[in-house]
Design a protein that fits this description.
The complex is a heterodimer of chains A (117) and B (112).
Chain A: E1 4-7, E2 10-13, E3 19-25, E4 32-38, E5 45-51, E6 57-58, E7 67-73, E8 76-81, E9 90-98, E10 105-108, E11 112-116
Parallel strand pairs in A: 2-11
Antiparallel strand pairs in A: 1-3, 3-8, 4-5, 4-9, 5-6, 7-8, 9-10, 9-11
Chain B: E1 9-13, E2 18-23, E3 31-38, E4 45-50, E5 55-56, E6 61-64, E7 70-75, E8 84-92, E9 106-111
Parallel strand pairs in B: 1-9
Antiparallel strand pairs in B: 2-7, 3-4, 3-8, 5-6, 6-7, 8-9
The chains are: A mainly beta (117), B mainly beta (112).
């Protein structure tokens, strides 16, 4: 299957700082990428849809000013957690939508584990 | 997207076939059945998807009933590395840039 990478894989930061997470589709172009969050022992929850060249669409309850999303190219989307707090500690996972084949499929990155102290 | 129902957990012996069921009785005619799995502390991995015909790839087979109200994912020769949470998701393919809705999935444990 197609490959999606994330960087960094793990980050520890102090409360109040901002953290940027990158998501790249390595072997296909993705006009649409998605950001998910997963808390311990829970399932993935969609946070936002990232659209290349336009504003992201956020799910209900997700603060767009806190979770800044930029999708500047067809292979890169970034999620910036601004003024991070301990409750933002979570596993952040991106996915990229591959429409190049006969059937559309979403491929996921390996995830970024964020710990805010 | 239609709702799916999966057993919470299942055990399977290593080397045997693992059969994971999924009920999706409210599936619409244009909705596909997707399967993903998530190994602990990793991002979900795409396995397979289908509309109404049975599908097979190098990872698994997908059997969809004729009325499309249920399906079964088959891992033909399960290994310890197949221990993961398996998610059955129903959605329209290519019909909108929507993220996936994950339920609780089935925790498949492969026993040595």
């Amino acid at each position: 299957g197609a490959v999606v990478s994330q960087h960094p894989s793990r980050v520890i930061c102090k409360s109040g700082t901002s953290v940027k997470i990158e998501c790249r589709s390595l072997d296909f172009q993705a006009t649409t990428m998605f950001w998910y969050r997963q808390f311990p022992k829970q399932s993935l929850m969609l946070m936002a849809t990232s659209n290349e060249g336009s504003k992201a669409t956020y799910e209900q309850g997700v603060e767009k000013d806190k979770f800044l999303i930029n999708h500047a190219s067809l292979t890169l989307s970034t999620l910036t957690v601004t003024s991070a707090h301990p409750e933002d500690s979570s596993f952040y996972i991106c996915s990229a939508r591959d429409t190049s084949g006969l059937r559309e499929t979403q491929y996921f990155g390996p995830g970024t584990r964020l710990l805010v102290l | 997207d239609a709702k799916t129902t999966q057993p919470t957990s299942m055990d399977c012996a290593e080397g045997r076939a693992a059969n994971l069921p999924c009920n999706h009785s409210t599936i619409s005619g244009n909705e596909y059945v997707y399967w993903y799995r998530q190994i602990h502390s990793q991002g979900p991995q795409y396995i397979i998807h289908g509309l109404k015909n049975n599908e097979t790839n190098e990872m698994a087979s997908l059997i969809i009933t004729e009325d499309r109200k249920s399906s079964t994912l088959i891992l033909p020769h399960a290994t310890l590395r197949d221990t993961a949470v398996y998610y059955c998701i129903v959605r329209v393919a290519g019909g909108g840039a929507d993220g996936l809705t994950f339920g609780k999935g089935t925790h498949l444990i492969i026993q040595p």
